[in-house]
Amino acid sequence: MNENFKWIAGAVAVVGLSLYGIIYLSRNDEPAPAETPVVAAPAPAPVPEEPAVKHPLAQPELKDPLPSLNESDAPVYDSFTELLGKEFMERSVVPGQIIRHIVVTVDNLPNEKVAERLRPVRPTPGTFAVAGTEDAPVLDPANYERYQPVLQLVRSTDVQQIATLYTRYYPLFQDAYESLGHPPEYFNDRVIEVIDHLLETPDVQGQIELKQPNVLYEFADPKLESRSAGQKALIRMGSANAAVVKEKLRELRKELVAQPPAN
To answer: pTM of this prediction?
Structure first.
């Protein structure tokens, strides 16, 4: 079973965790006059409208201009270090292409898999533990303890500071999102959508049965195994730990949607 929670917690702590650029198509089918039957002209091709931005962010006035996306690693790393601490950053965060990797990871959390090489945070230390028997393996609750250091960081991180940092660098997040082939959709809408997706993760109580069809373990319950990478990571960390992350996500969501749009 892959290790996914650490980069989710990192994404929450570093930026928070929206694709809702709905494109409306308009048609203009004019009926022919009844008294003169003719073949109607073909309808014009659908014209995509500008996507509706659902959760716009107000951009602060900056004393200094933002760096380009390709030159942003050093200032972004320093800003995150001020918020999250030097020890966490050195131990946990992959320093290269920070914003690009966060955007890719967040965008892919609702998918079945996320590319490990693009994760912004290093894997959780320790070994995945399995209990039960060879014929009936279960998820060992000892796994839940491995997440306590990062859970403590999630608990203690100020959501307003996360939102302020995210908003400051938002144009770079948007640039990175558009570079994935999403223009002109709005990345903060994707963030909110992904948060909502993670909040829909079921609360699994009690013993979690596993199976091992190949090298990696999977959830024995096909309904759980069919969940997205992000939701399965929350399930795998245990109900109590997932509740902590969900509460922080709710706080972050409230902060991001409450910001007034720029004039």
So the answer is: 0.78
